[in-house]
Amino acid sequence: MPNTKDIYTTGLRNAHAMENQALSILRPQVKRIEHYPEVAERIEQHIGETEKQIERLDQLLERVDGDRSALKDTALSMAGSMAAIGHTMAPDEIVKNSFANFAFENYEIAAYKSLVALAEGSGQADAVSLLQANLDEELAMAEWLDKHIQPLTMRYASLSSGGVDAKN
C-alpha cells in the first residue's frame, strides 16, 4: 500500500514527464508562428519557465531519492510532438494551438495544486515553495492565454478575411 510520500514521489515523476511534454508541444509551435509576435514572445518566455520548472522538479526528485521516469518523459514527449503535428494541418492552427495550450496549462495547474497538497501531507514542507513557483508560472500563462484567446481569434479572422494565410 503506497503512503503519501510514495504518491508524492510518483506525482513528481509525472510532473517531470508532463513538463517535458509541454516542451515538445511548445517548441514546434513557436518555430512556426509568423503573424502573431506577441504569442511567439509569450511562448518563448514560457519555454524558459518550463525549463526552470524541470530543474526544480529534478531538485525535488533528488531530495526524495526518486529518479525521474525516462519512460514517462519519452512517452509524453512523443505524445506532445504528435499533438503539435496534428494542428499543423489545420487552417486555423494558431487558434487550435491556443485552445490546446489553455487546456494543457489548466491540467498543469491541477497537477501542481495536487503536488503542493501531497508535499504538505508527506512532510515535504520545504518543497512547497518550489512547487508553488511552478504553479504560479502556470497560473500566469493560463491567465495570459485566457485574456488573449478572443483577440487572437479575431485577428486570425481579420487576416483570413483579408486573404492572408493566417494559420500561424
Automatic annotation (TrEMBL):
SUPFAM superfamilies: Ferritin-like. The keyword Coiled coil applies. It comes from the Bacteria. The keyword Membrane does not apply. InterPro entries: DUF892_YciF-like (IPR010287), Ferritin-like (IPR012347), Ferritin-like_SF (IPR009078), YciF (IPR047114). Residues 40-67 form a coiled coil. Keywords: Coiled coil. This is Ferritin-like metal-binding protein YciE. It comes from Devosia subaequoris.
